[in-house]
Amino acid sequence: MSTSTMQLEFGDIRTLTVALGPMTTFASVDTDGTPHIIPVIPAWVGDALVFATHAMSHKVKNLRSRPKASMQFLTPGEAFPNALLMKGITRIIEGDERATLWDSGSFPWLPMMYSGSDDAMLRFVEFTPTRATVVRDGGRGPVERWRAQHS
What we know:
Helix content: 10-25%
Strand content: 35-45%
Structural class: alpha+beta
CATH class: Mainly Beta
Number of strands: 9
Number of helices: 3
CATH architecture: Roll
CATH superfamily: Electron Transport, Fmn-binding Protein, Chain A
Radius of gyration: 16 Å
Mean pLDDT: 91
Order of helices and strands: EHEEEEHEEHEE
CATH topology: Pnp Oxidase, Chain A
Shape: globular
């Protein structure tokens, strides 16, 4: 395991999610403290990753009471993968704001799942990263870290 640590820039995180994506693993926490992990396909909207979900989903229920979550992107099919691990804060997007996201073109698969931006079951989850760690070559390469600057 490498002991070398390097500093990441926010732009590096965006680039890595595109290179490692499009699918990621999203983890929220149940009311009893148990992790709930599910694959999602997010898109960058501003400085946040956003994905669509069902209004009655387990993750929406979890995030209403515990808005902190994490995402993990991995290099697919490699014995020693590169990984981007992120922690962040979430916001559930409801109401009129859904139309802007629907119309953005960032989620081309939505019409297969929902009737439109006004579908009563459509929600979006906005994940704003607060910390990120990149582990390269299955942990044998350098570790890179990023932390949001708080004003």
